[in-house]
Amino acid sequence: MLIPKRVLLLAFVFVGIGVILGYSIALEERVVRGADPPVASAATKNQADTADDRDAAVDGTKTRANYDKESAGPDYLRQSAGVSVDRGDLDFGLADGHISKLLPYPQPCREGDRTPLDLWRYGGRGNSSWGSPNLRMAWDDWVEFCIEQKPKLMQEVHDYMNSRYDFRGNPIPGVFMSGGRKPV
Fold first, then answer.
1. What is the dihedral sign for C-alpha 149, 150, 151, 155?
2. Using CA atoms, how far apart are residues 184 and 180, in angstroms rounded to an integer?
3. Prediction pTM value
4. Kindly report the CA angle at 135 between 134 and 140, in degrees rounded to 5?
5. What does residue 43 show for φ and ψ, rounded to 5 degrees?
6. How far apart are CA 92 and CA 38, in angstroms?
7. What are the angstrom distances between the C-alpha of 31 and each of 25, 27, 37, 59?
8. pLDDT band at 46 (very low <50, low <70, confident <90, very high)
9. Which residue in 40, 69, 83, 144 has its CB near the most CB atoms, within 10 A?
10. How far is the C-alpha of 174 from the C-alpha of 172, rounded, in Å?
11. Quick check: 158 and 165 in contact, CB under 8 A?
């Protein structure tokens, strides 16, 4: 299907008119470098804090504030303190899980020491198991230390899981999945 020449010609004419109009509007809005500053509007006058600032804003003479470092003191150009909000003793519905009720992390806590399985009971700003990546002993001693710890850790994990869960696959009487059909 061929497009008639007349339709193409009209399309190019309209696109050309649009480009010319857009360019001319953009030229009117440009600020020419070296031109006089624009006169302040009434809104700018109302925003000025003092009569001197208002006059300077209208004249276009005020460009920036002049600061005297000596009179500004030691806080010259320093960041102000952040906002501090006192929220009181709210626990946000966390009850025993609030940081004020958690136990401090067990000590001593060095790299390679076991992390407690009930980690959710601990909190606070004390030491944790995250420490230096440098070993506190020779590599061979470190391997021996880990070999000794592995069976103890596996037995403790096994005992812990058996105390909390029943892995025999027997359903709990009276407990069902959502929908109420399949027992858990």
1. positive
2. 10
3. 0.40
4. 140
5. -65, -40
6. 55
7. 13, 9, 9, 18
8. very low
9. 40
10. 6
11. no
